[in-house]
Write a structure and sequence with these properties.
- The N and C termini lie far apart (about 60 Å).
- This protein has one domain.
- It is globular.
- It is mostly helical.
- Helix 1 packs antiparallel against helix 2.
- About 80% of the residues lie in helices and about 0% in strands.
- The protein has helices at about 1-20, 30-40, 55-70, 75-100, 105-140, 145-165, 165-199.
């Protein structure tokens, strides 16, 4: 019984880790999940076995290459930003649901939407904020650097989620706290002039 509970816990951690990585890059975590499933390092739920097939691996490889390349084209990276958030949430929900095994469909999809979609949207919010800051402070000149950093973070988070899922979730929790603290500090800076003006 304890082994089953531990396996479920690890699958949830791996699912949330891969979902969060979708917030950096949509297709990288799906590609990593496909490679890990084909090599026997990841167990997929029955309805998602297609992720661990060679056609899926080819599709995710092409999609990943196109996504990476597109972010280095100045006008196209802006277009991708507008569709990245919903795409990341959908991808995060799917990849997490594919790993949530040994549970009812209702529980699987509830966890996938809340945990997977939530983790992807949280990380995506951070990447959008980073890109917006880069665009406003450097006129978009630093955007390729930001894109490269996001790619590296997506790869590292995805691999970590497969190899050390608990560590991945702890790191992501720290990232979430950092984003929340940064948002809170910015909000306080914005409110300060208004408070001083009213006093």
């Amino acid at each position: 019984m304890g082994i089953i509970v531990m396996e479920i816990f690890l699958s949830i951690c791996a699912g949330i880790g891969l979902s969060a990585a979708c917030g950096f890059r949509v297709f990288v975590p799906l590609l990593v999940a496909s490679v890990a499933a084909l090599s026997g390092h990841l167990q997929l739920s029955p309805h998602f076995q297609w992720i661990g097939t060679y056609p899926a691996l080819l599709a995710f490889s092409v999609a990943t290459a196109l996504e990476i390349g597109a972010y280095f084209i100045p006008w196209l990276d802006h277009v991708l930003d507008t569709i990245a958030t919903p795409s990341a949430i959908v991808a995060g929900t799917i990849v997490s649901a594919s790993l949530f095994t040994d549970m009812s469909p209702f529980l699987r999809w509830t966890l996938a939407v809340i945990g997977g979609g939530g983790a992807a949207s949280l990380v995506q919010a951070g990447t959008v904020a980073a890109r917006l800051t880069s665009t406003t402070t450097t006129g978009g000149l630093a955007n390729p650097v930001v894109s490269s950093a996001q790619l590296v973070l997506s790869v590292v988070t995805s691999v970590l989620a497969v190899v050390l899922p608990i560590v991945a979730v702890v790191v992501l929790a720290g990232f979430g706290v950092w984003i929340a603290a940064k948002f809170w500090r910015r909000r306080r800076r914005e409110l300060k002039p208004a408070e001083e003006g009213s006093s």
